[in-house]
Design goal:
Layout: E1 7-13, H1 20-28, E2 35-41, H2 48-58, E3 62-66, H3 72-87, E4 92-95, E5 101-102, H4 106-117, E6 121-130, E7 136-139, E8 150-152, H5 157-162, E9 169-172, H6 173-186, H7 210-219, E10 224-237, H8 242-266, H9 271-283, H10 288-293, H11 299-314
Parallel strand pairs: 1-2, 1-4, 2-3, 6-10
Antiparallel strand pairs: 4-9, 5-10, 6-7, 6-9, 8-10
Helix pairs in contact: 7-8, 8-9, 8-11
Length: 318
């Protein structure tokens, strides 16, 4: 009988045949063996499903779930985490994008740290590398004094915000379960109707960042985080034009609005988080006016960004 905690690694997949084998190889070769790799294919139109089926046939730790229609990245996240919580005994949950890859000791170090520290979330640095390049840079934004210390999330929101993605974290499964339960309770109306469960991923097709909103809605439930000064995931930066950059930032707006709505409906005080997030996005938009004048940003995207900024200013977030 294996007494090591089971770790579920969630991998949403969509049209990833060019990079998927590298991602899966990095997971099946983890030094920590008691894992389940949950892959949710979001109705891919390339050879991704064939690759997933091949790996699943050769490694029983891999579970493949296929969507009959496209649900967007958030749908893949929800499918993976729901399966982990409802169909496995996983004590911890990790996630990796289908075009990234990890160091072989990632899960081993995550579990050792989580068990030793008792943290709800263990956060690591990451490697940034450009597509087609071997140049790798270890990336961190946390002050040295915050590493290797158990931090209450409630009083360290600005630190959590620096690492708001999901793919560089190991999260205690019961932390998510308890947050969801509290979410349902706080959002229930007097007649018992559940208005909102924000501790899930928004399901939007196209450019979106559902893990950002998910983490900001999860962390408002409190708990503790522990930072380790070690990088595991190789985050591959794809070629990115100014046009796509503008669309990418605009895609965050839905997550900001959904998160603000969640705070309002559940009574959580997330004002500091929202303000930090909004100001960070606006700072990233300094390129916008000239790019629009140069014809590199579509008018509809530009108008949406300006309208959103004006609305956030009216709300007092800028």
């Amino acid at each position: 009988m294996n007494t090591q905690p089971l770790v579920a690694i969630c991998v949403p997949v969509y049209n990833a045949e060019q990079h998927l084998e590298r991602a899966l190889d990095s997971l099946v070769n983890q030094t920590y063996r008691n894992i389940v790799i949950i892959c949710a294919d979001d109705a891919s139109t390339d050879g991704s499903v064939d690759i997933l089926d091949y790996y699943a046939e050769n490694d029983t730790r891999i579970k493949v779930i296929t969507h009959t229609h496209n649900k967007g990245a958030g749908g893949g996240y929800n499918t993976c985490i729901d399966y982990a919580l409802d169909n496995t005994n996983a004590e911890y949950i990790c996630q990796m994008d289908n075009d990234d890859y990890s160091e072989p000791d990632m899960v081993e170090v995550f579990v050792e740290t989580a068990v030793r520290s008792g943290a709800d979330i263990v956060v690591a640095d990451c490697f940034f590398c450009s597509e087609g390049s071997e140049h790798i840079k270890q990336y961190n934004k946390v002050s040295d004094c915050l590493y290797n210390t158990l931090l209450p999330i409630e009083t360290n929101w600005n630190v959590i915000f620096d690492w708001v993605a999901l793919w560089n974290k190991c999260i205690r499964a019961d932390y998510i379960r308890n947050a969801r339960a509290e979410s349902y309770t706080k959002s229930r109306t007097a007649d018992g109707v559940i208005r909102h469960c924000g501790v899930r991923f928004t399901e939007v097709i196209g450019e979106c960042y559902p893990d950002t909103g998910f983490m900001l809605r999860l962390c408002v439930h409190g708990g503790t985080a522990y930072y380790i000064k070690k990088a595991f995931v190789h985050y591959v930066i794809r070629a990115n034009s100014i046009t796509r950059k503008a669309k990418s930032i605009a895609a965050y707006f839905d997550e900001v609005d959904a998160t603000s709505d969640y705070y309002a409906k559940t009574g959580f005080n997330g004002t500091a988080f929202v303000k930090t997030w909004v100001n960070s996005l606006v700072k990233d938009l300094e390129f916008l006016p000239q790019a629009y004048l140069d014809g590199k940003v579509e008018e509809t995207v530009y108008n949406r960004i300006i309208a959103w900024q004006n609305n956030q200013r009216a709300l007092g977030n800028l």
